[in-house]
Amino acid sequence: MTYCELLANGDFPLIKLMDIRNEQISTSVLCDYFNFGSLNKELLSPLNAQELEFNNAEKTSTSMAKIQKNLKRFEWNFGKIPQNLKTLTPRRVIITLKNVGGVNSQFAFHMPNESEIELEPWMDPGEPTPEQAFENEMLQKGLFEVQPKQGTLKPNEQMDIEALYYPKEVGEHSLNIFFQVLNGKPLVLKFAGKTLHPRRGHLQLRKETFVLPPTPIDLVTPITYPLEVRNYGSIKFEYEIDEEPLRELAAKNYNFNEIFYLPTQNKKKIPVQPNKSEYIYVMFRPIEAKVYSIELPITVKDIEGTQSVTLKIEGAGYHPLCSPIPSYQSIFTSTPLCRSNLKGLGQKASFSLDEVDFGEVDPNVPSRRMIVLYNHSKTHALNFAFEMTGLVWYS
Predict the structure, then answer these.
(1) Do residues 101 and 58 touch, judged by C-beta distance below 8 A?
(2) By the 8 A CB rule, do 287 and 245 touch?
(3) How would you list the strands of the sheet with 15-21, edge to edge?
(4) What is the pLDDT of residue 392?
(5) Which helix (DSSP H) or strand (DSSP E) does residue 331 occupy?
(6) Distance from CA of residue 39 to its chain's centroid?
(7) How many CB atoms are closer than 10 A to CB 328?
(8) Residue range 164-218, pLDDT digits in tens
(9) Over 50: is that where the pLDDT of 59 sits?
């Protein structure tokens, strides 16, 4: 008698987000807004019981609505954009999907009304729930869109999709959109965005709380951290920082006034043009191995009036001779490393790297890295210039 042993490995379709781009928002900010890292981690994880039940919905007695409520949810936040009734130009975010598995992968985006069961004319659908009424309103206004809504990728193949948000009316908007990889991961994506008044400036901080990297105590000179401030409105504004919390912090720490402090350029009213960024330079010099935190009120003025924003900063000091460097989660951890191999929709140029890491460097010794700027046009020359900031020098 002869025996034959068969061994096989099963594989489910795997799709990964490889890149994300917008002409007005930096990639690292978009990664935060679109939960790039956590979403990729979920897409590449094994299917759980609820997801297996969804993929085999025809074999279960559980209602589809209940199954969908058990799926993982992630927010895709388009940020803030001023209303423009003349052009209604949407915020267009380009996302690159790649099949990183060993089998063909089919994906699809479904709007809430695309999964409804068609009712007979005599059947009464009943009153919609508040959630359904809100979704119907968002669908009727056509504020969110995905192009294309579906596609098929062979192993190692990738493609760009466009996610769009139209600033048609002032206010906050959201819509749950269903994303599924056939026989793979099903997810719910909450598209969200805010349309601003057309005649206002709007100061946007990158994060609600800026957590600075761990810093050794007893430094001879402080470390300077640039915190991005962007005007997402349609007119110029000026902002001014209230420094009273800095003085209160010093009073609680041996009257040492250099734990957190601002250089001269931040001690005045600073103008920010529409769709431009400035930087608040925060200098940090801890004197004890502990966590310091502060909240700085910011007054924002434009031609229409005054707004208030709070800048929250947290930093930790550590003793370099008594303890190792504490772990720290960089804001750039999930940023795509390279875009040079793919031409995005409408993208005319790209760098070979999006993040330049100089690592540990010796004092007063220049450290150099080289990156390449690619011109994707076959017919036009490329002119470029770097914007100067307080920490950037170039030749």
Answers:
(1) no
(2) no
(3) 15-21, 91-99, 158-165, 144-147
(4) 58
(5) none
(6) 11
(7) 10
(8) 999 988 999 999 999 999 888 899 999 999 998 888 888 988 888 899 989 999 8
(9) yes
- Which of 17, 34, 24, 18 is CA-nearest to residue 77? 34
Between the alpha carbon of residue 118 and those of residues 112, 113, 114, the distances in Å are 13, 10, 10
The residue behind tokens 């930096």 is 26
What value does the mean pLDDT of the chain take? Answer: 83
- Stated pTM of the model: 0.79
On the question of a cis peptide bond just before residue 226, with omega within 30 degrees of 0, the verdict is no
**pLDDT for 337 beyond 80:** no
Q: For residues 245 and 209, what is the distance between their CA atoms, to the nearest angstrom? A: 16
Could you identify the residue written with the tokens 């959630």?
131
Kindly give the pairing relationship between strand 373-375 and strand 105-110: unpaired
What contacts 24+ positions apart, CB below 8 Å, involve 247-255? 249/292, 249/294, 253/287, 253/288, 253/292, 254/287
**Residue whose pair of structure tokens reads 């011109």 in the numeric block:** 375
| Cβ neighbours for 352, distance < 8 A, ≥ 6 positions apart | 338, 340, 371, 372, 373, 374
How far apart CA 100 and CA 106 sit, in angstroms, is 12
The two tokens of residue 193 are 């965005």
Strand partners, 133: none
| Residues 6+ away with beta carbon under 8 Å from 322 | 289
- Is 12 strand, coil or helix? coil
User: In whole angstroms, what is the distance from residue 332 CA to residue 192 CA?
Assistant: 22
Read off the pLDDT of residues 312-331 as tens digits, 9 standing for 90 and up.
999 999 998 888 888 776 65
Nearest Cα to Cα of residue 172 among 189, 191, 190, 195:
195
Q: For tokens 């979403």, what's the residue?
A: 39
